[in-house]
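Predict the 3D structure for this chain.
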Amino acid sequence: MAIKNYTTKLSALQSVAKIQEALISHGAVGIQMMYDRDQRISSLAFALPFKDGKNLSFQLPCEWRKFQQVLINQGIKRSGEDEYAYRVAWANLKDWVLAQMALYETEIVTMPQIFLPFVVTKNGTLFDQFKDKGQLLLDSGK
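Done. Predicted structure below.
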């Protein structure tokens, strides 16, 4: 079965705009686009209110080149076209974010819970720390 959104007509910028709209309408207080060397959006950095008036920062990556390899492995005709892979990758991220917003709207999860792996720490994202060390070591809280 082909990967989801492989026939999308939405541009990457349209998918990013829909993600931004969803984040803003669900409480994001700031959003920034980060670009790669090819001037493509590589991630969205955003802030969500947490507690005591403080915000948590998150960075949602779009690893479109890795995604492109999946398209190639699946034998999708246009998989070698960078712009196509980039567009389809962002369409899939859009769908994931919108699905998470649906969970949030049912009060099953909070916004910070949804994006916890992408919370930015002094050493990268929380997931990056876990990936690099194989475990999460929390400090003493002092």
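The chain has a mean pLDDT of 90.
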